[in-house]
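Issue: ligand-bound run for zinc ion - logging full I/O for the record.

Environment: standard queue, default settings, no custom constraints.

Inputs:
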Amino acid sequence: MIMALENDAPKIEWIREKAKASDYHISEHIVRYFMVKKVTIREIEDAIANGRIIETHRHPARGVSALVLGYAGEKPIHVMCADDQHGWLLILFTYVPGSKMWKDPVNRIEHGGKRMGEKLNKCFFCGGMIEQVQVGNFDYRLEGQLYVVKDIPAGLCVQCGEKYITAKASKKINSLIEDERFVGTEDVFVLKYE
Ligand SMILES: [Zn+2]
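Outputs:
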Protein backbone atom coordinates (compact mmCIF):
# COMPACT_ATOMS: atom_id res chain seq x y z
CA MET A 1 0.00 0.00 0.00
CA ILE A 2 1.13 3.56 -0.67
CA MET A 3 -1.35 5.13 1.76
CA ALA A 4 1.43 6.22 4.05
CA LEU A 5 2.75 8.52 1.35
CA GLU A 6 -0.50 10.32 0.73
CA ASN A 7 -0.05 12.89 3.44
CA ASP A 8 3.47 13.72 2.44
CA ALA A 9 4.06 17.00 0.71
CA PRO A 10 5.71 16.67 -2.68
CA LYS A 11 9.48 17.11 -2.61
CA ILE A 12 11.16 19.88 -4.58
CA GLU A 13 13.35 17.40 -6.47
CA TRP A 14 10.24 15.52 -7.64
CA ILE A 15 8.46 18.76 -8.61
CA ARG A 16 11.49 19.91 -10.63
CA GLU A 17 11.82 16.58 -12.37
CA LYS A 18 8.14 16.48 -13.31
CA ALA A 19 8.16 20.07 -14.55
CA LYS A 20 11.29 19.47 -16.61
CA ALA A 21 9.75 16.37 -18.20
CA SER A 22 6.44 18.22 -18.78
CA ASP A 23 4.72 15.58 -16.65
CA TYR A 24 2.21 18.01 -15.28
CA HIS A 25 -1.30 19.33 -15.56
CA ILE A 26 -2.30 22.90 -14.91
CA SER A 27 -5.64 24.03 -13.57
CA GLU A 28 -8.03 26.27 -15.46
CA HIS A 29 -7.17 28.91 -12.90
CA ILE A 30 -3.72 29.14 -14.48
CA VAL A 31 -5.14 29.35 -17.99
CA ARG A 32 -7.15 32.37 -16.85
CA TYR A 33 -3.97 33.85 -15.40
CA PHE A 34 -2.28 33.43 -18.80
CA MET A 35 -5.10 35.35 -20.40
CA VAL A 36 -4.38 38.43 -18.32
CA LYS A 37 -0.69 38.03 -19.22
CA LYS A 38 0.50 37.89 -15.63
CA VAL A 39 2.70 34.89 -16.15
CA THR A 40 3.63 32.47 -18.92
CA ILE A 41 4.08 28.71 -18.80
CA ARG A 42 7.76 29.26 -19.59
CA GLU A 43 8.10 31.48 -16.52
CA ILE A 44 6.38 28.87 -14.37
CA GLU A 45 8.80 26.20 -15.60
CA ASP A 46 11.78 28.51 -15.03
CA ALA A 47 10.58 29.32 -11.51
CA ILE A 48 10.17 25.65 -10.63
CA ALA A 49 13.62 24.82 -12.04
CA ASN A 50 15.32 27.12 -9.52
CA GLY A 51 12.55 26.99 -6.94
CA ARG A 52 12.30 25.91 -3.35
CA ILE A 53 9.37 25.04 -1.13
CA ILE A 54 8.52 27.86 1.26
CA GLU A 55 5.24 26.55 2.69
CA THR A 56 3.33 23.30 2.92
CA HIS A 57 -0.44 23.53 2.93
CA ARG A 58 -2.83 20.89 4.16
CA HIS A 59 -6.43 21.06 3.11
CA PRO A 60 -9.08 18.54 4.16
CA ALA A 61 -10.43 18.09 0.64
CA ARG A 62 -7.41 18.86 -1.49
CA GLY A 63 -4.73 17.11 0.51
CA VAL A 64 -1.19 18.37 0.72
CA SER A 65 0.33 20.95 -1.56
CA ALA A 66 3.65 22.76 -1.65
CA LEU A 67 4.09 26.45 -2.31
CA VAL A 68 7.18 26.87 -4.45
CA LEU A 69 9.06 30.15 -4.79
CA GLY A 70 11.24 30.49 -7.84
CA TYR A 71 12.42 33.20 -10.18
CA ALA A 72 11.89 33.86 -13.87
CA GLY A 73 14.76 36.26 -14.38
CA GLU A 74 14.25 38.86 -11.64
CA LYS A 75 10.55 38.14 -11.26
CA PRO A 76 9.54 36.14 -8.18
CA ILE A 77 6.80 33.61 -8.84
CA HIS A 78 4.84 31.46 -6.43
CA VAL A 79 3.56 28.16 -7.78
CA MET A 80 1.30 25.87 -5.77
CA CYS A 81 2.14 22.27 -6.57
CA ALA A 82 0.53 18.97 -5.62
CA ASP A 83 1.09 15.32 -6.33
CA ASP A 84 -2.05 13.77 -7.82
CA GLN A 85 -0.83 10.36 -6.57
CA HIS A 86 -0.97 8.98 -10.12
CA GLY A 87 2.38 10.21 -11.33
CA TRP A 88 1.42 13.72 -12.33
CA LEU A 89 2.42 17.04 -10.92
CA LEU A 90 -0.62 19.28 -10.53
CA ILE A 91 0.01 22.99 -10.79
CA LEU A 92 -2.93 24.45 -8.92
CA PHE A 93 -2.34 28.15 -9.16
CA THR A 94 0.39 30.72 -9.52
CA TYR A 95 0.90 34.39 -8.84
CA VAL A 96 3.54 37.03 -8.45
CA PRO A 97 3.75 37.71 -4.68
CA GLY A 98 2.59 41.27 -4.13
CA SER A 99 3.35 43.81 -1.43
CA LYS A 100 -0.17 43.66 -0.01
CA MET A 101 0.30 40.07 1.07
CA TRP A 102 4.05 39.52 1.27
CA LYS A 103 6.77 41.50 3.04
CA ASP A 104 9.15 39.86 0.58
CA PRO A 105 8.79 36.79 -1.65
CA VAL A 106 9.33 34.46 1.34
CA ASN A 107 7.48 36.08 4.25
CA ARG A 108 3.81 36.87 4.55
CA ILE A 109 2.53 40.03 6.18
CA GLU A 110 0.66 39.05 9.32
CA HIS A 111 -2.83 40.49 9.22
CA GLY A 112 -3.86 39.09 12.57
CA GLY A 113 -7.30 38.18 11.28
CA LYS A 114 -8.49 41.77 11.53
CA ARG A 115 -10.15 41.57 8.17
CA MET A 116 -12.46 38.83 9.35
CA GLY A 117 -16.02 39.82 8.69
CA GLU A 118 -19.18 38.50 7.21
CA LYS A 119 -17.85 38.83 3.66
CA LEU A 120 -15.57 36.32 2.04
CA ASN A 121 -12.12 37.52 2.98
CA LYS A 122 -9.72 34.82 1.90
CA CYS A 123 -9.13 33.37 -1.54
CA PHE A 124 -9.95 29.67 -1.74
CA PHE A 125 -7.07 29.11 -4.17
CA CYS A 126 -4.16 31.09 -2.83
CA GLY A 127 -5.20 32.41 0.58
CA GLY A 128 -4.87 35.99 -0.69
CA MET A 129 -7.00 38.83 0.62
CA ILE A 130 -10.32 39.56 -1.03
CA GLU A 131 -11.18 43.16 -1.80
CA GLN A 132 -14.64 44.29 -2.80
CA VAL A 133 -14.48 45.96 -6.21
CA GLN A 134 -16.57 46.74 -9.26
CA VAL A 135 -15.36 44.55 -12.09
CA GLY A 136 -15.56 46.42 -15.39
CA ASN A 137 -15.91 43.31 -17.53
CA PHE A 138 -16.99 40.06 -15.98
CA ASP A 139 -17.07 37.00 -18.22
CA TYR A 140 -20.08 34.85 -17.58
CA ARG A 141 -21.02 31.64 -19.33
CA LEU A 142 -24.51 30.30 -19.41
CA GLU A 143 -25.47 27.24 -21.44
CA GLY A 144 -22.38 27.53 -23.62
CA GLN A 145 -22.93 31.19 -24.42
CA LEU A 146 -20.45 33.83 -23.30
CA TYR A 147 -21.81 37.04 -21.83
CA VAL A 148 -19.84 40.04 -20.65
CA VAL A 149 -21.42 41.75 -17.68
CA LYS A 150 -20.34 45.32 -16.90
CA ASP A 151 -19.68 46.82 -13.50
CA ILE A 152 -20.51 43.84 -11.37
CA PRO A 153 -19.73 43.98 -7.64
CA ALA A 154 -17.27 41.21 -6.88
CA GLY A 155 -14.66 40.05 -4.45
CA LEU A 156 -11.29 40.23 -6.14
CA CYS A 157 -8.28 38.33 -4.81
CA VAL A 158 -5.53 40.94 -4.64
CA GLN A 159 -2.96 38.22 -5.11
CA CYS A 160 -4.03 35.82 -7.86
CA GLY A 161 -6.88 37.76 -9.41
CA GLU A 162 -9.59 35.16 -8.77
CA LYS A 163 -13.04 36.75 -8.66
CA TYR A 164 -15.92 35.79 -6.42
CA ILE A 165 -19.49 36.93 -6.77
CA THR A 166 -22.31 36.59 -4.29
CA ALA A 167 -25.35 34.37 -4.80
CA LYS A 168 -27.41 37.57 -5.06
CA ALA A 169 -25.20 38.99 -7.83
CA SER A 170 -25.15 35.71 -9.73
CA LYS A 171 -28.97 35.51 -9.64
CA LYS A 172 -29.16 39.06 -10.90
CA ILE A 173 -26.82 38.25 -13.78
CA ASN A 174 -28.98 35.28 -14.68
CA SER A 175 -32.13 37.33 -14.72
CA LEU A 176 -30.50 40.09 -16.79
CA ILE A 177 -29.64 37.44 -19.37
CA GLU A 178 -33.07 35.81 -19.22
CA ASP A 179 -34.73 39.17 -19.72
CA GLU A 180 -32.28 39.88 -22.58
CA ARG A 181 -31.42 43.25 -21.17
CA PHE A 182 -28.39 43.54 -23.37
CA VAL A 183 -26.81 46.95 -23.76
CA GLY A 184 -24.60 46.06 -26.71
CA THR A 185 -22.33 43.48 -28.27
CA GLU A 186 -18.56 43.18 -28.39
CA ASP A 187 -16.26 41.23 -30.66
CA VAL A 188 -14.20 38.56 -28.97
CA PHE A 189 -11.02 36.88 -30.18
CA VAL A 190 -11.48 33.16 -30.60
CA LEU A 191 -8.58 30.72 -30.34
CA LYS A 192 -8.63 27.13 -31.48
CA TYR A 193 -6.28 24.52 -30.11
CA GLU A 194 -4.93 22.50 -33.05
ZN1 LIG B 1 -6.17 34.13 -4.88
